[in-house]
Design goal:
Largest sheet: 6 strands, mixed
Number of helices: 8
Shape: globular
Bound molecules: fe (ii) ion
Number of domains: 1
Oligomer: single chain
CATH topology: Purple Acid Phosphatase, chain A, domain 2
Strand content: 25-35%
Helix content: 25-40%
Length: 278
Protein backbone atom coordinates (compact mmCIF):
# COMPACT_ATOMS: atom_id res chain seq x y z
CA UNK A 1 0.00 0.00 0.00
CA UNK A 2 1.17 3.51 -0.79
CA UNK A 3 2.25 5.68 2.09
CA UNK A 4 0.60 8.75 0.64
CA UNK A 5 -2.87 10.14 0.23
CA UNK A 6 -3.76 11.45 -3.23
CA UNK A 7 -6.27 14.29 -3.33
CA UNK A 8 -7.86 16.07 -6.28
CA UNK A 9 -8.74 19.69 -5.56
CA UNK A 10 -11.22 21.16 -8.02
CA UNK A 11 -11.68 24.91 -8.56
CA UNK A 12 -14.89 26.96 -8.41
CA UNK A 13 -17.74 25.14 -10.17
CA UNK A 14 -19.68 27.74 -12.17
CA UNK A 15 -23.42 27.10 -12.48
CA UNK A 16 -24.82 24.11 -14.36
CA UNK A 17 -21.73 23.71 -16.58
CA UNK A 18 -19.63 23.27 -13.43
CA UNK A 19 -21.99 20.66 -12.01
CA UNK A 20 -22.17 18.79 -15.33
CA UNK A 21 -18.36 18.72 -15.63
CA UNK A 22 -18.03 17.42 -12.08
CA UNK A 23 -20.64 14.71 -12.62
CA UNK A 24 -19.17 13.59 -15.94
CA UNK A 25 -15.45 13.59 -15.19
CA UNK A 26 -15.03 12.67 -11.52
CA UNK A 27 -15.65 8.90 -11.92
CA UNK A 28 -13.03 8.47 -14.66
CA UNK A 29 -10.50 10.79 -12.97
CA UNK A 30 -10.95 8.85 -9.75
CA UNK A 31 -10.15 5.60 -11.50
CA UNK A 32 -7.40 6.89 -13.81
CA UNK A 33 -5.44 8.66 -11.05
CA UNK A 34 -6.37 6.35 -8.14
CA UNK A 35 -7.69 9.34 -6.19
CA UNK A 36 -8.28 8.89 -2.47
CA UNK A 37 -10.40 12.01 -2.00
CA UNK A 38 -11.88 15.00 -3.81
CA UNK A 39 -12.25 18.54 -2.48
CA UNK A 40 -14.23 21.04 -4.55
CA UNK A 41 -15.04 24.74 -4.32
CA UNK A 42 -18.81 25.20 -4.68
CA UNK A 43 -19.24 28.94 -4.13
CA UNK A 44 -20.53 29.53 -7.68
CA UNK A 45 -22.36 26.24 -8.17
CA UNK A 46 -25.91 27.66 -8.06
CA UNK A 47 -27.63 28.08 -11.41
CA UNK A 48 -26.98 31.85 -11.60
CA UNK A 49 -23.31 31.33 -10.71
CA UNK A 50 -23.63 32.75 -7.22
CA UNK A 51 -23.67 30.69 -4.03
CA UNK A 52 -24.71 27.13 -3.35
CA UNK A 53 -27.99 25.47 -2.33
CA UNK A 54 -28.76 22.47 -0.05
CA UNK A 55 -29.72 20.44 -3.14
CA UNK A 56 -26.37 21.13 -4.81
CA UNK A 57 -24.49 20.19 -1.64
CA UNK A 58 -26.28 16.80 -1.69
CA UNK A 59 -25.53 16.43 -5.41
CA UNK A 60 -21.79 17.11 -5.01
CA UNK A 61 -21.55 14.75 -2.03
CA UNK A 62 -23.32 12.03 -3.99
CA UNK A 63 -20.95 12.57 -6.92
CA UNK A 64 -17.86 12.07 -4.77
CA UNK A 65 -16.87 15.29 -2.95
CA UNK A 66 -15.36 14.64 0.47
CA UNK A 67 -15.49 18.32 1.43
CA UNK A 68 -16.98 21.37 -0.29
CA UNK A 69 -15.25 24.71 0.23
CA UNK A 70 -16.72 28.11 -0.61
CA UNK A 71 -15.87 31.82 -0.60
CA UNK A 72 -17.38 35.28 -0.85
CA UNK A 73 -20.64 34.01 -2.46
CA UNK A 74 -21.40 31.48 0.28
CA UNK A 75 -24.25 33.46 1.85
CA UNK A 76 -26.22 34.20 -1.37
CA UNK A 77 -28.93 31.62 -0.62
CA UNK A 78 -30.45 31.88 2.84
CA UNK A 79 -31.68 28.26 2.86
CA UNK A 80 -28.06 27.16 3.08
CA UNK A 81 -27.38 28.88 6.44
CA UNK A 82 -28.78 26.04 8.58
CA UNK A 83 -27.02 23.48 6.43
CA UNK A 84 -23.72 25.32 6.98
CA UNK A 85 -24.30 25.14 10.72
CA UNK A 86 -25.36 21.50 10.76
CA UNK A 87 -23.13 19.75 8.24
CA UNK A 88 -19.44 19.04 8.72
CA UNK A 89 -18.55 18.54 5.06
CA UNK A 90 -19.26 22.04 3.69
CA UNK A 91 -17.19 24.93 4.99
CA UNK A 92 -16.98 28.69 4.56
CA UNK A 93 -13.98 30.99 5.07
CA UNK A 94 -12.83 30.65 8.68
CA UNK A 95 -12.07 34.37 8.97
CA UNK A 96 -15.68 35.54 8.61
CA UNK A 97 -16.53 37.19 11.92
CA UNK A 98 -17.86 34.98 14.73
CA UNK A 99 -21.65 34.66 14.46
CA UNK A 100 -21.70 34.06 10.70
CA UNK A 101 -23.29 30.68 9.85
CA UNK A 102 -21.03 27.71 9.33
CA UNK A 103 -17.47 26.78 10.16
CA UNK A 104 -14.11 27.06 8.47
CA UNK A 105 -12.61 23.61 9.07
CA UNK A 106 -13.77 20.11 8.09
CA UNK A 107 -12.30 16.74 9.00
CA UNK A 108 -12.77 13.48 7.16
CA UNK A 109 -11.16 10.06 7.22
CA UNK A 110 -9.41 8.43 4.30
CA UNK A 111 -7.18 5.32 4.30
CA UNK A 112 -7.61 5.31 8.08
CA UNK A 113 -6.12 8.82 8.37
CA UNK A 114 -7.76 12.02 9.56
CA UNK A 115 -7.56 14.79 6.97
CA UNK A 116 -8.35 18.46 7.63
CA UNK A 117 -9.61 20.95 5.07
CA UNK A 118 -9.53 24.64 5.92
CA UNK A 119 -11.13 27.53 4.02
CA UNK A 120 -9.84 31.08 4.46
CA UNK A 121 -10.39 34.25 2.44
CA UNK A 122 -8.14 37.11 1.37
CA UNK A 123 -8.79 40.78 2.10
CA UNK A 124 -7.14 42.54 -0.84
CA UNK A 125 -9.82 43.76 -3.31
CA UNK A 126 -12.48 41.76 -1.46
CA UNK A 127 -15.52 43.59 -0.10
CA UNK A 128 -16.43 41.40 2.88
CA UNK A 129 -15.61 42.31 6.47
CA UNK A 130 -13.05 39.71 7.43
CA UNK A 131 -10.65 38.97 10.22
CA UNK A 132 -6.98 38.62 9.29
CA UNK A 133 -6.60 35.36 7.32
CA UNK A 134 -2.98 34.94 8.43
CA UNK A 135 -3.70 35.22 12.15
CA UNK A 136 -6.91 33.20 11.80
CA UNK A 137 -5.20 30.19 10.27
CA UNK A 138 -2.22 30.49 12.58
CA UNK A 139 -4.46 30.04 15.62
CA UNK A 140 -6.64 27.39 13.93
CA UNK A 141 -3.56 25.30 13.17
CA UNK A 142 -2.83 24.92 16.89
CA UNK A 143 -6.12 23.02 17.23
CA UNK A 144 -5.92 21.18 13.89
CA UNK A 145 -2.39 19.90 14.57
CA UNK A 146 -3.66 18.07 17.66
CA UNK A 147 -5.73 15.92 15.28
CA UNK A 148 -3.70 15.55 12.09
CA UNK A 149 -0.79 16.79 10.01
CA UNK A 150 -2.65 16.14 6.73
CA UNK A 151 -3.96 19.63 6.13
CA UNK A 152 -5.39 21.13 2.91
CA UNK A 153 -6.14 24.84 2.68
CA UNK A 154 -8.37 26.64 0.15
CA UNK A 155 -7.33 30.32 0.18
CA UNK A 156 -10.11 32.20 -1.60
CA UNK A 157 -8.44 35.43 -2.68
CA UNK A 158 -8.10 37.86 -5.56
CA UNK A 159 -4.45 38.82 -5.74
CA UNK A 160 -1.44 36.68 -6.55
CA UNK A 161 0.67 38.63 -4.02
CA UNK A 162 -1.62 37.83 -1.09
CA UNK A 163 -1.71 34.17 -2.11
CA UNK A 164 2.07 33.92 -2.45
CA UNK A 165 2.49 35.63 0.90
CA UNK A 166 0.18 33.04 2.46
CA UNK A 167 2.17 30.26 0.76
CA UNK A 168 5.36 31.51 2.41
CA UNK A 169 3.57 31.98 5.75
CA UNK A 170 2.17 28.42 5.72
CA UNK A 171 5.10 26.62 4.08
CA UNK A 172 5.98 23.59 6.16
CA UNK A 173 2.89 24.07 8.35
CA UNK A 174 0.26 22.60 6.00
CA UNK A 175 0.32 19.86 3.37
CA UNK A 176 -1.17 21.88 0.56
CA UNK A 177 -2.40 25.41 -0.07
CA UNK A 178 -4.49 26.14 -3.16
CA UNK A 179 -5.96 29.42 -4.33
CA UNK A 180 -9.51 29.85 -5.62
CA UNK A 181 -11.80 32.75 -6.63
CA UNK A 182 -10.20 34.14 -9.82
CA UNK A 183 -11.56 31.23 -11.93
CA UNK A 184 -8.36 31.38 -13.99
CA UNK A 185 -5.88 28.54 -13.55
CA UNK A 186 -2.27 29.49 -12.88
CA UNK A 187 0.67 27.38 -14.06
CA UNK A 188 2.81 27.71 -10.91
CA UNK A 189 1.96 24.44 -9.17
CA UNK A 190 4.98 23.62 -7.01
CA UNK A 191 6.23 22.13 -3.78
CA UNK A 192 7.51 24.93 -1.55
CA UNK A 193 10.92 24.52 0.20
CA UNK A 194 9.24 23.48 3.47
CA UNK A 195 7.15 20.77 1.77
CA UNK A 196 3.82 22.52 1.16
CA UNK A 197 2.17 21.84 -2.21
CA UNK A 198 0.99 25.10 -3.73
CA UNK A 199 -0.82 26.65 -6.69
CA UNK A 200 -1.92 30.30 -6.89
CA UNK A 201 -5.30 29.40 -8.40
CA UNK A 202 -6.96 26.10 -9.27
CA UNK A 203 -9.01 27.79 -12.00
CA UNK A 204 -12.75 27.70 -12.51
CA UNK A 205 -14.92 24.96 -14.01
CA UNK A 206 -17.17 26.39 -16.70
CA UNK A 207 -17.15 27.87 -20.19
CA UNK A 208 -13.72 28.23 -21.78
CA UNK A 209 -14.60 31.23 -23.98
CA UNK A 210 -16.18 33.38 -21.29
CA UNK A 211 -15.30 36.01 -18.73
CA UNK A 212 -14.61 33.84 -15.67
CA UNK A 213 -17.55 31.57 -16.56
CA UNK A 214 -20.01 34.33 -17.42
CA UNK A 215 -21.19 35.49 -20.87
CA UNK A 216 -18.34 37.73 -21.95
CA UNK A 217 -20.45 40.17 -24.02
CA UNK A 218 -22.30 41.33 -20.90
CA UNK A 219 -19.04 41.81 -19.06
CA UNK A 220 -17.66 43.90 -21.93
CA UNK A 221 -20.74 46.15 -21.75
CA UNK A 222 -20.24 46.54 -18.00
CA UNK A 223 -16.75 47.86 -18.70
CA UNK A 224 -17.79 50.06 -21.64
CA UNK A 225 -20.86 51.58 -19.96
CA UNK A 226 -21.61 51.07 -16.26
CA UNK A 227 -22.07 47.97 -14.10
CA UNK A 228 -25.87 48.41 -13.94
CA UNK A 229 -26.31 49.52 -17.54
CA UNK A 230 -24.17 46.68 -18.85
CA UNK A 231 -26.51 44.05 -17.38
CA UNK A 232 -26.43 41.17 -14.96
CA UNK A 233 -23.93 38.33 -14.95
CA UNK A 234 -25.25 35.35 -16.88
CA UNK A 235 -23.55 31.93 -16.69
CA UNK A 236 -22.35 30.89 -20.13
CA UNK A 237 -23.69 27.47 -21.07
CA UNK A 238 -22.45 27.15 -24.65
CA UNK A 239 -19.14 26.21 -26.27
CA UNK A 240 -16.23 24.19 -24.88
CA UNK A 241 -16.07 23.78 -21.10
CA UNK A 242 -13.04 23.38 -18.84
CA UNK A 243 -12.59 21.46 -15.60
CA UNK A 244 -9.58 22.69 -13.57
CA UNK A 245 -7.67 21.69 -10.47
CA UNK A 246 -4.59 19.97 -9.11
CA UNK A 247 -3.79 16.48 -7.88
CA UNK A 248 -1.59 16.39 -4.79
CA UNK A 249 0.17 13.46 -3.12
CA UNK A 250 0.85 13.92 0.58
CA UNK A 251 3.10 11.67 2.65
CA UNK A 252 0.93 10.20 5.40
CA UNK A 253 3.78 10.13 7.93
CA UNK A 254 5.26 13.58 7.47
CA UNK A 255 2.19 15.45 6.16
CA UNK A 256 4.38 16.98 3.44
CA UNK A 257 3.50 17.12 -0.25
CA UNK A 258 5.57 14.84 -2.42
CA UNK A 259 4.00 15.59 -5.81
CA UNK A 260 1.62 18.14 -7.31
CA UNK A 261 0.20 17.90 -10.83
CA UNK A 262 -1.94 20.23 -12.87
CA UNK A 263 -5.34 18.87 -13.92
CA UNK A 264 -7.17 20.55 -16.80
CA UNK A 265 -9.72 18.96 -19.08
CA UNK A 266 -11.34 20.74 -22.01
CA UNK A 267 -14.67 19.18 -22.96
CA UNK A 268 -16.21 20.32 -26.25
CA UNK A 269 -19.18 17.93 -26.04
CA UNK A 270 -20.78 18.71 -22.71
CA UNK A 271 -22.56 21.94 -23.69
CA UNK A 272 -24.73 19.87 -26.06
CA UNK A 273 -25.94 17.86 -23.06
CA UNK A 274 -26.62 21.10 -21.22
CA UNK A 275 -28.67 22.41 -24.16
CA UNK A 276 -30.82 19.25 -24.14
CA UNK A 277 -31.50 19.62 -20.42
CA UNK A 278 -32.90 23.14 -20.85
FE1 LIG B 1 -15.65 31.89 -7.53
FE1 LIG C 1 -15.17 34.10 -5.06
Amino acid sequence: MNNYVRVLLVGDLIGNPGLALFEKWIPSLKEKHALDAIVVNGENAAKNGKGITPKIIDFLKEKGAAVITTGNHVYEHKDVYNVLNERNDIIRPANYPPGCPGKGVAFFTVLGQTVAVVNIMGRVFMRDMLDCPFRTIESLLIFIKTKTNLIFVDFHAETTAEKRAMATFLDGKVSCLVGTHTHIQTADEQIMPGGTGYVTDLGGCGALFSAIGMEADTIVQRFLLHNHVGGKFVVQTTGPMVLSGVIVDVDMTTGKAIKIQNMRIVDDQISQTLAQEK
